[in-house]
Amino acid sequence: MPCLNLSTNVSLDGVDTSSILSEASKTVAKVIGKPEAYVMIVLKGSIPISFGGTEQPAAYGELVSIGGLNPDVNKKLSAAIATILETKLSISKSRFFLKFYDTKAHQSQDYAQCLHALHQH
């Protein structure tokens, strides 16, 4: 179950967040090769972020998945998400960082929290 957490210092006021969530969800499912029904996207805006010593628009992401990740997939995913952020939020691709956690390789607390959130319903 892939879970993508995105944080940006850009305000999401007046932004069509649904289109960002929808595109990110489809992209993650397609690139990783998992059904979109299992993909979770979390988008947080107005988060204080400094990157390279400035507070220009920037974003940080963490993607947790059980398998399906490898250097090629990670590269494609990073590029695709960067394009969405650049198009929708005017965040330069050079000011976006995406960290990958493959929970097969090592158990991650973030994954447990993501799953925990899903099972609250």
Automatic annotation (TrEMBL):
Superkingdom of origin: Eukaryota
One Pfam family matching this protein: MIF
Similarity field: Belongs to the MIF family.
PANTHER family according to UniProt: D-DOPACHROME DECARBOXYLASE, TAUTOMERASE_MIF SUPERFAMILY PROTEIN
Signal peptide boundaries: none
Gene Ontology CC terms: extracellular space
Transmembrane segments: none
Gene Ontology molecular function: phenylpyruvate tautomerase activity
Name of the protein: Macrophage migration inhibitory factor
